[in-house]
Amino acid sequence: MACAALFCGNVAASEDTLVIDSRDYLTTERLTPTYLDYIRTDYWGSNWFLNVQGGISAFCGHPVGCGDMTDRIMPNLNISFGKFITPQVALRLYYQGMKFKNTVKETHNYFTLRADFMFNIATFFRSKSTANSKWDLLPYVGIGVSRGAVLHHTDCPCHACNGSNYPFTIGYGVQARYRIGEYLHLTGEIGNFTTMSDFDNLGNRRSMRDNMPSVSVGLAVTLGKSGWDRAIDAKPYIAQNDYLISEYKRLKDIADNCEEKDKNNSTYSGLEALKARLMERHKMELDRLKAEQQRYNDSLRAARAYNFPIYFFFKKGTVILTDRSQLLNLEELARVAKEHGLTLRVEGAADAATGTPKINRKLSIKRCRFLVNELKKRGVEVKNIKGVSRGGVRDHKRIQEDRHAKVAIYVDLSEDSED
């Protein structure tokens, strides 16, 4: 029994979580949650945007004509509607138009309509854990058509090319976005479109040498859900649990062998003789066990379990997960629990900053029952599930993170392990 007591001192950590490092030994550090890639939920109902901008443009064409670009500066308006497919990629329909002055300072109406592909390079400079970014930088390129000056080619004998002018257009530039509210961005854009040389009724229609550079600022409104949901990566917790279960079995075998030898050894002189034999055969384990034995024995009486929680986050005031894909984490938890006969502890909580204590108490119970039912669906027996309600809590800096329920997988130790 003395050997079993030493073993119990090793495995009953409470506040610190045992973590496996690259050298394959255990250190006492809390396991920090890591996140999977962005999870897209409500795919077609989220992250649409409508962007309205105003600014200036200056026609620059061929032939060059008289004056310079400053003589041809005119106001312009652009409107775009699109969607972020991923945090990196967006597509939009883009309209720009008003009036322009050509190279001989004649004023014409114009517009351009095109489809743009946008790529957010700001994602390379921030963490994947960022749910709603503060700023974005989006270079873009697109193709479409423009309507320029009405053509009047006096040198055309058939006059077939006279009239409306809708030349092919290539657009490109960069847009910056800064979040000023959950559904509102301040935007600024520098762009240009290149089109056929007769866009302004001057030049050769067989070459693309007319340009319309522009600068504009405005506002973008997000339609539907804003931002991106995240899911905690359960793999480190599962790997850690598997390692500790195997370590538990190995040390338990050592304890059982010690007890068996004690029964057959008539010259056994107590705990000190047992320790001497263990130090001879398992010196590395004993060095670590003796240093941590007292601290672990104290915590053993308060909490007799391995506790490695995985969090599941809910929408405010509900039992609806912020992201249904979080339930993927339950699959591995249920598998490990069933395979090794482990107990799962489910704790429900609500953020104390919202609602009354009575409301938060009821909400935390509902969130706990939600996860218990999901575990039962995955084959975990009711006797292996313990449910706890914590009511309103203030455990995290962000209020949203207090709206959770968590599942902890652990190994119960027998009462006689303390003897």
Short description:
The protein has 419 residues and is α+β, with helices and mostly antiparallel strands.
Mean pLDDT: 78
Element order: H for helix, E for strand: HEEEEEEEEEEEHHHEHEHEE
Structural class: alpha+beta
In spatial order, strands of the major sheet run: 3-4-5-6-7-8-9-11
Overall CATH class of the largest domain: Alpha Beta
Number of helices: 6
Regions with little confidence, pLDDT below 50 for 5+ residues: 1-25, 299-306, 413-419
- Specify the CATH homologous superfamily of the largest domain: OmpA-like domain
Commentary on this structure:
With 419 residues, the chain is an alpha+beta fold. It has 2 domains: 2-36 and 231-418, 60s Ribosomal Protein L30, Chain: A; 43-223, Porin. Helices cover 25% and strands 33% of the residues. The chain has 6 helices and 15 strands. It has helices at 2-11, 235-264, 271-281, 283-302, 328-340, 357-377; strands at 18-20, 26-28, 48-58, 73-84, 89-101, 107-119, 135-147, 168-181, 184-195, 210-211, 214-223, 308-313, 343-351, 385-393, 404-410. The strands form 3 sheets. The chain has an 8-stranded antiparallel barrel with strand order 3-4-5-6-7-8-9-11. The protein has a 4-stranded mixed β-sheet with strand order 12-15-13-14. Strand 4 (73-84) and strand 5 (89-101) form a beta hairpin. Helix 1 (2-11) packs antiparallel against helix 2, helix 2 (235-264) packs parallel to helix 5 (328-340) and helix 3 (271-281) crosses helix 4 (283-302). The longest helix has 30 residues, at 235-264. The termini are close together.
